[in-house]
Fold:
Amino acid sequence: MADVIQNFPLPLPAAHGAADFTLTLPAEWLALSLSTVRGTPCLWVQVQRGQPQGPHRFSWVTDGSQVPARGRYLGTFSLSETTPVYHLYTSEG
Structure:
């Protein structure tokens, strides 16, 4: 099967501290980019078409907040100059 790029809109993070959430993604995926589209944070990933999907855990972390244990950094964004900077981690190491 061929690899494809998919875009996953992400829930907006809480104002401060860490916020955990789950996304349904294929079993194997490669993070390509984190950016915003019309004010919504989105994660672009490369996946192989037809793979089984399942839940994957993620965390938003703001500056000065604790990074998830075994977390893997995926990217950083801010909605504006007056909002906190958010860092996205997967909790799956």
Remarks:
- The mean pLDDT is 87.
- The two ends are 26 Å apart (CA to CA).
